[in-house]
Amino acid sequence: MEYMDFLNAVRDYINETAKDVKVTVHSSQKNNGVILCGLTFSQEGYNASPTIYMDNYYVDYLGGSDICEIGDRLLNLYHENDLAVNLNMSFFDDFDSVSGKLFIKLINKQKNEAFLSEVPYEQFLDLAVTAYVRVNDKKIGSGIIMVRNDHLKHWGTDAETVLSVARKNTHDHDGYKLRHIVDVITSFSGTDNALLADRSDFPMYVATNERMTNGAAVMIMPDKLSEFAQVIGGDYYVIPSSVHELILIGKQQQNNTHDIDEMIRQVNETQLGPDDILSDHVYMYSKRDGVLLF
Length: 294
Fold this sequence. Notes:
Blueprint: H1 3-17, E1 22-29, E2 35-42, E3 51-53, H2 55-62, H3 67-80, H4 95-98, E4 102-108, H5 113-116, E5 121-124, E6 127-137, E7 141-146, H6 149-155, H7 159-173, E8 177-180, H8 181-189, E9 204-208, H9 222-232, E10 236-239, E11 246-250, H10 257-270, E12 283-286, E13 291-293
Antiparallel strand pairs: 1-2, 2-3, 4-6, 5-6, 6-7, 8-9, 9-11, 10-11, 10-12, 12-13
Helix pairs in contact: 1-3
């Protein structure tokens, strides 16, 4: 049974079995044109409909689990974790209320042409600056809602205003910082690496925000890029390791951009989820000119 047939079969079983929930097959477009399909659970009296993506359950099915067993597990998951939620979304109706929750996300322009036709954006080099709203709930945690053109009409505002507010919020509140690669490695391993102890001989850094989410947005912040140049000691290469963070390398340490581009492509193909990829080539920051080039 193919994946979509599997989803339909589980949906039908749950809808025939459960009396309090309605399940539908839901497709969601993610970054870089990635489409995720899962099952959305809705319940009368609640305005939030959680979607459960089914890849792992499909693996179980292929391994021998039957449709009824998987459907029962999903129902237990839904009820035991009390996934029926009412979110207070009244703030979303008014631009003054939503403006403080606007932030930016940097994405690949070429890979997101269809998506960009539906949302406000600004081109930055070969990338696109988009806006999203952060939503927080004590029960379900945090989430995001991408700003679409229809939202602008509802709010009575324009793309320039939304993106300007989102840029300022992101710059002022997300706590962007530069960490030496040794410190990053140490934080994960718990021990310092003696081979990399002399940081002055190894000017490689990671730039992201305190949330470590959508941190590549720092690429559009001239003052931060200038600060980084002071730390690194001159011009540097910007490696888009994902939409969440950047790797910066002093230009004096590496002159072959072809090698860097090849490394980026290999990492994108083997280490990143397709919706986390930002770009497949290196950028360079010129300290003298104060600009990012590609």
